[in-house]
Write a structure and sequence with these properties.
seven-stranded mixed sheet; globular; five-stranded parallel sheet; 2 domains
Length: about 500
């Protein structure tokens, strides 16, 4: 019997809505869960519920909220295999990667347990006697969090954990095609003892979410929007928030470059490019977009890379594979559009393109009725090609050449994204020059473009985001506001900049 999941608002199920089937992309005829999609009013209602619950949650001392976060971490850790298996089944992520994703939640909870005792403000010296100045971090209120499904449990935790720790309430709208994984994570959070209404799960499509969010912003029941997804949708959310004088936390797409210098360890670079390009079937915001390889090692790198791609295993994500299927039918359709960007001046060096089927197998693997696609490496991309300039969410990597580091940096910045980047070199000077010149929010040296740690800031610039950062202490700036307080105990009105004692120097003094 197919499992049905629904929205949960104020601790109560909200079962109304159109049905949506979340499928297993490794076997598209298998329905993982039937999802009831809520309407715009349900989303707005969840925000009202959250606003009511937030007032009491904010009064809970931060160290106590930290203990709740610690409990979430322990619950996720105890259920790691079950949650990872569900992620693998619902979105086709290889099980080893899914386990790593679940570990990211635990790491995030472990970090923010301590932040419950470190929501520090400062005491500031006043320019006047008998007066003290203070600063405090205060919660923003209600955070509406909208997440993609390629990391259906780890990335949401980057928002949910610090938002809740800081005293906010949350309305979370996950991707509908990963709703079963999201519902499981919600249940783990709820089991930690969160009061009803502090965390609300709304399962909805994009149009209902947009309409409901607009209503909530107008009503003043949402005070922060967190969004992970495409640049196109991020722009629309940014415009909507701007009309209500809010600054959203936007984590958007990427066209992440990897520069391979002439002194690079080519085997290491190939290993990094293989994982960055085709791990999660190239469906990460940090996936490798273009390898920018020095002309003197281009042929050697390309030969090694092509052989590595040919030898990699694609198949059942429950097994030991480089990648499994694409996430969902809509991503498969969009990826086929990207394959149409391959031009006559390009050279596909990796073999067949398109879906893996009985008519177009990959070795002995014929696709097993899943959304499996051949990995594609395209040599000869040019700076004006769509393949070079635009994000291609899927298993395709472009390759181009450069002659000087300055040229490589210019090529790396040209698409206008700014999420992740990588350089392979044994020369520290090259590494630091690349870091100084690249516009990306994250730089890897001799490592792939993918790979976040829970205590390091994650986020991008340009088309990849609005400069907001997740993870570590830096994300607290998204979910708290600074409040300043001055306390005058002099017994009289002291006017700033006016009633200030002045010590007069003799500025004409000379030795």
């Amino acid at each position: 019997m197919t499992h049905e999941i629904v929205s949960v608002i104020g601790g109560k199920q909200a079962p109304n809505g159109a049905a949506y089937d979340s499928i297993n992309p490794a076997r598209v005829d298998e329905v993982v869960a039937q999802v009831r999609l809520a309407d715009a009013e349900t989303f707005a209602s969840a925000c009202r519920t959250a606003a009511e619950a937030q007032r009491e949650w904010a009064r809970v001392p931060a160290p106590v909220r930290g203990r709740v976060i610690a409990s979430i971490g322990r619950l996720v850790e105890a259920n790691a295999e079950s949650l990872a298996s569900l992620v693998t089944r619902e979105i086709g992520k290889p099980y080893a990667e899914a386990l790593g994703e679940v570990r990211e939640i635990v790491d995030t909870c472990d970090f923010f347990l301590g932040e419950g005792r470190r929501l520090y403000g400062q005491t500031v010296p006043s320019e006047m006697p008998d007066k003290s100045l203070f600063t405090f971090r205060v919660p923003v209120g209600v955070a509406a969090v909208i997440t993609a499904g390629n990391f259906p449990v780890a990335v949401p935790s980057w928002y949910l954990v610090p938002a809740l720790l800081s005293g906010n309430a949350v309305v979370w709208k996950p991707a509908e095609y990963a709703a079963a994984s999201a519902h499981a994570l919600y249940r783990l959070f709820a089991a930690a003892g969160l009061p009803e209404g502090v965390l609300n799960l709304v399962l909805a499509d994009g149009s209902a979410t947009s309409e409901g969010l607009e209503t909530a912003l107008a009503e003043g029941t949402v005070h922060k929007v967190g969004f992970t997804g495409s640049t196109e949708v991020g722009r629309r959310i940014g415009e909507l928030c701007g009309r209500h004088l809010q600054s959203p936390c936007l984590e958007l797409g990427g066209k992440n470059p990897m520069v391979v210098m002439p002194d690079a360890d080519l085997d290491l670079a190939v290993e990094g490019a293989l994982f960055a390009g085709f791990g999660t079937a190239g469906q990460r915001c940090t996936s490798l977009g273009t390898v920018i390889v020095h002309e003197s090692v281009h042929a050697e790198f390309l030969g090694r890379y092509t052989r590595a791609v040919a030898a990699a295993t694609i198949g059942d994500p429950a097994g030991d594979v480089l990648c499994g299927p694409l996430l969902d039918h809509k991503f498969a359709s969009r990826y086929e559009e990207y394959l149409g960007w391959i031009q006559p001046h390009h050279t596909v060096v990796s073999g067949p393109t398109g879906r893996i089927t009985g008519d177009s197998p990959r070795g002995d693997f014929s696709g097993d009725g899943g959304l499996y696609y051949h990995p594609v490496v395209v040599d000869g991309v040019r700076p004006d090609d769509r393949l070079f300039l635009e994000e291609t969410f899927g298993p395709i990597v472009g390759v181009t050449t450069f002659s000087t580091l300055e040229e490589a940096v210019e090529l790396a910045n040209r698409p206008g994204y700014g999420l992740s980047s990588s350089i392979y070199t044994t020369d520290p000077k090259s590494a630091f020059r690349f870091r100084a010149g690249i516009g990306a929010g994250m730089v890897s040296v001799n490592n792939s473009t993918s790979g976040a740690e829970a205590h390091l800031p994650f986020g991008g610039n340009g088309k990849s985001g609005n400069g907001s950062r997740q993870s570590g202490m830096w994300v607290l700036d998204q979910f708290t506001r600074w409040q300043a307080m001055n306390w005058d105990y002099s017994g009289r009105l002291q006017k700033a900049q006016m009633d200030v004692a002045e010590i007069v120097p003799d500025l004409d003094f000379r030795l």
